[in-house]
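For the sake of transparency, this paper describes our internal protein records without simplification. The record that follows is passed on verbatim for readers who wish to inspect the format:
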Amino acid sequence: MTEFTVWAPEAKRVRLHLPGTADHEMRAGRDGWWRVEVPDAVRDYAFLLDDHEQPLPDPRSRWQPAGVHGPSRIYDHSAFTWSDGSWTGRQLPGSILYELHVGTFTPEGTFDAAIGKLDHLVDLGVDLIELLPVNAFNGEHNWGYDGVCWYAPHEPYGGPDGLKRLVDAAHARGLGVILDVVYNHFGPSGAYAPRFAPYLSERHTPWGQAVNLDGPHSDGVRRFIIDSVLMWLRDYHVDGLRLDAVHAMPDSRAVHLLEEIAVEVESLSVHLNRPLSLIAESDLNDPRLITPREAGGFGLHAQWNDDAHHALHTLLTGERQGYYGDFGSMECLVEVLRGGFFHSGSWSSFRQRQHGRPVDRRTPGHRFVAYLQNHDQIGNRAVGDRLSATLSPAMLRVGAVLLLTAPFTPMLFMGEEWAASTPWQYFASHPEPELAAAVVTGRRAEFASHGWSATEVPDPQDRQTFLRSRLDWAELDKPDHRAMYDFYRRLIALRKSRAELSDPHLFAVDVRHGDRFLVLRRGGCLVAANLADKPQLVTLPGVARRVLLTTGEGVTVQRDRIELPAETAAIVAL
């Protein structure tokens, strides 16, 4: 016999619906869970709530082969044969992350196709791949942040077994896997969980109603999220999770959900005897997220650091619109390198208020994930243009040096390593005409406020928008792209060969700057960068013994001085 259960604390009646057979009445328990046992021959199933006759998929469905509106299918996690029994994990400190979207990483857009590119990432020197959300959403292609089934991998990508094959293959090559998960809202189509229980609150996020973390029945909602977290880490063998937009998860309870997650993940990590990382995306600039629980924090392992991105992006590009307005000076970058955040209680002109909290400089920098580009910072531009569309190859290399020698955990976005020319645009495939039209209209209105005309903004529903966003791997055979890739390989290899270049201690960062130049001391190494469009002679805080790497030709060193051509950086040993 097989037992079926579902949490529906406010329902008066629940039936198990098995296609082609009679429905089965379920028994209610005091805990809000309904249960019934049926013979083991069942494959597909759904639930009927109260007296409604619409079959609804299981909120905890592990497999949705017919899409988010179809029936759920039984999936046995124990049936998959893993080959990673000797895998001991990959810790976040010291690692290099590589963010990728399964649907556009390869022409095929599947988990299995991504396996064919893992050797490329090993050759590059990556340690952890970070997958954009893969849980089931409506339609064929999407960024993944409209997911509605928080336990089921997207079927067009390859479903549950496909994700497991990718993780297993990554581990075989020494690569860890981080999975991006969204627990702050449900997508707009196929979100049936709120029909079963009060999963949503009356509060709103920019993407829909907020999840009920502190109202009536919120114990069950929190359990729903925590069990999903543990499932990805335990049953899919992933090495960590990136928690999307945690600032959009309002929780007034004494123990925040994020702390509860950290506690249970720590217990699972001990049981599995391998590191499990929790990375937050947060707009709060609040270091409590990454402060250990014994010091009064939430105990997460890292958080994305948009301040680091903004400081680098504005210096490299000169852009100052929108939230870039407070950034762009050398002093700003110095503040970030020394203190983690730029806004640490300072005035934010974009928000028209003070923002952030200071970081204790004893906090290791590896708790901040830094990047020149990511899916948001490219895809949320009107035309999804990468840095390679506007910056010279010389300036791209300077940016890479500043990122990969900073005291943070660096992350690359897929294709960045060869200066991919393909954009990464906002795309969706909502089948519902009204929803599709609303997405197009909303996207264009959003960018109109930033000065882009409607004709400049690609139609998210147009399949060509999706196809344009796929990586062109043939670019690696072109000399300019191959040269950029080879440079990234050398830079990453140097970072891993010199302990001081990945030293996470903020208090040990010594940085000096002048007019469009910067000198960063990293133990026995100096990083000198000239962002100006003219050569500069820079005095070093020590005598350079050896040049370890340069981004271009023409760099000359004379004891404690270095001459840097325009848009050039160098790393030297003292």
Q: What stands out?
A: The first helix runs from residue 102 to 105.
